[in-house]
């Protein structure tokens, strides 16, 4: 079975958020299940040091441009990685600026040309989010089946008339943007968790596409993301002060103390340390915190460290809170993997109050590292975090349902209270750390899906 992944991000090489984690780790699990999988990605300027073929393995034209494809390997694996080279990708960014739509159309079109002209002959092309949404449409004339995965329905790409200016889009497509094209023209649509697959069929979460999605019947399914449990392992993570696992959890507190020291907080094991690692955008629900700072800080002993970047509104929200409570709140407004890992490996609680969350990778890394998640019950958060019940000792975290600051505050108090009971807390952490968060089960679901599609190829 031959499968090609096409995406704008792939960890650890090119990452803005969780889609990169999926594209960089699901192929490893698929390869283990015996599938021949390759990845195709833009050759971004910051990938200059990655070892790759000296000469392009394919050269061609797309959108009146000359494009070249180089071959490399996904780091730490044998998985072939195609890199689409063109000056438009040579700068140091993945998203943003006025040429964003043009760049990803060029990327998609190059993938189409590469396949049309026999660069490789996968049976399945697995596309991810709007950046690759036109590919299922273009692949309709090829004996290749397409899977379109929705990582985030909120980003749909520009309207289709925009593309018509420089690329062929058959006129009867019915699609008005690339997200819609991916939904209509793929052979199977997946969302990154079962709950999100159901939610996007409702007006509340459907981003105006709920009617279209409801009409897709069983072409749409939800397959829960996993994480790369080999790479994300507190027993070997080199960013941590102290490594630990389920048999040596008592060592973890050293990471917490180091984190408190690093951020100038009072260094005290009994202080409740809350961590956030996130893109700072509307989706993530941090506006719920805005009215809570004073009440929360005056009525609890919690410390908060936030790592994230994005929308200036949220950067300002956290920066001003940190200025107001410098000894209790710290905001690091950047993208920084070592600090992220130190938060996962040292915080007591991991906060993710998302307005909506297709799956969420952050809460899974937190579980793996023994940071207890407090999340809003939505999307993949509802599929991975289960309420901590101290009576019968079930569950692995804390959830609140209604999108409302007081509900969040009540749950913050409840978590801090639970933290006082050390034995219970330890067992709560262990339940999270012991869960299987790997790709194993979901990779098999994808493999079954590919198989059923290939069977239709005849
Ligand atoms: N400042 C920072 N520094 C370092 N690391 C940072 C960081 N900010 C975020 N990260 C990392 O980026 C990833 C975030 O992934 P998430 O899945 O939680 O959200 P995201 O919205 O980006 O992904 C979208 O796609 C994924 C994949 O399908 C879905 O799970 C999710 O719900 C959907 O919104 C985590 O690995 C996190 O550690």
Automatic annotation (TrEMBL):
EC number(s) stated in the UniProt entry for this protein: 2.4.1.21
EC class of the enzyme, as a word: transferase
Species, as recorded: Gloeobacter morelensis MG652769
Swiss-Prot/TrEMBL keywords: Glycogen biosynthesis, Glycosyltransferase, Transferase
InterPro entries: Glyco_trans_1, GS/SS, Starch_synth_cat_dom
One Pfam family here: Glyco_transf_5
Protein name: Glycogen synthase
Protein family per UniProt: Belongs to the glycosyltransferase 1 family. Bacterial/plant glycogen synthase subfamily.
Starch synthase catalytic domain residues: 2-214
Sites where the protein binds ADP-alpha-D-glucose: 15
């Amino acid at each position: 079975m031959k499968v090609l992944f096409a995406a704008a991000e792939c960890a650890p090489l090119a990452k803005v958020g969780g889609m990169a984690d999926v594209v960089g780790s699901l192929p490893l699990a698929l390869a283990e299940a015996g599938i021949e999988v390759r990845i195709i990605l833009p050759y971004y300027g910051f990938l200059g040091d990655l070892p790759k073929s000296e000469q392009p393995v394919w050269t061609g034209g797309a959108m009146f441009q000359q494009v070249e494809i180089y071959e490399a390997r996904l780091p730490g694996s044998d998985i072939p990685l195609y890199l689409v080279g063109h000056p438009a990708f040579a700068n140091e960014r993945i998203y943003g600026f006025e040429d964003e739509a043009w760049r990803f159309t060029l990327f998609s079109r190059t993938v189409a040309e590469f396949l049309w002209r026999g660069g490789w002959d996968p049976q399945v092309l697995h596309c991810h989010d709007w950046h690759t949404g036109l590919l299922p449409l273009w692949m309709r004339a090829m004996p290749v089946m397409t899977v379109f995965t929705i990582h985030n329905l909120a980003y749909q790409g520009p309207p289709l008339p925009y593309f018509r200016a420089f690329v062929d889009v058959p006129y009867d497509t019915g699609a008005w943007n690339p997200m819609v094209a991916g939904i209509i023209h793929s052979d199977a649509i997946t969302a990154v968790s079962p709950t999100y697959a159901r939610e996007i069929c409702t007006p509340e979460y459907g981003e105006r596409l709920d009617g279209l999605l409801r009409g897709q019947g069983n072409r749409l399914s939800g397959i829960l993301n996993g994480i790369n449990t080999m790479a994300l392992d507190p027993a070997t993570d080199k960013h941590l002060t102290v490594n630990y696992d389920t048999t040596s959890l008592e060592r973890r507190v050293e990471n917490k103390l180091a984190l408190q020291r690093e951020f100038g907080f009072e260094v005290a094991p009994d202080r409740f340390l809350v961590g956030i690692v996130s893109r700072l955008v509307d989706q993530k629900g941090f506006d719920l915190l805005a009215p809570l700072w004073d009440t929360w800080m005056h009525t609890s002993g919690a410390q908060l460290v936030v790592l994230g970047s994005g929308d200036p509104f949220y950067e300002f929200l956290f920066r001003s809170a940190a200025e107001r409570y410098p000894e209790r709140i710290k905001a690091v407004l950047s993208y920084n993997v070592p600090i992220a890992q130190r938060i996962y490996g040292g915080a007591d609680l991991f906060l993710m109050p998302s307005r909506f969350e297709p799956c969420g990778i952050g809460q899974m890394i937190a579980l793996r590292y023994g940071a207890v998640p407090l999340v809003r019950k939505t999307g993949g958060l509802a599929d991975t975090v289960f309420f901590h019940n101290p009576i019968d000792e079930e569950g692995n975290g804390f959830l609140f349902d209604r999108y409302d600051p007081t509900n969040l505050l009540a749950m913050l108090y409840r978590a801090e209270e639970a933290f006082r009971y050390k034995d219970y807390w330890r067992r709560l952490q262990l339940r999270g750390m012991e869960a299987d968060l790997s790709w194993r089960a979901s990779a098999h679901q994808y493999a079954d899906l590919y198989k059923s599609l290939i069977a239709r190829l005849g």
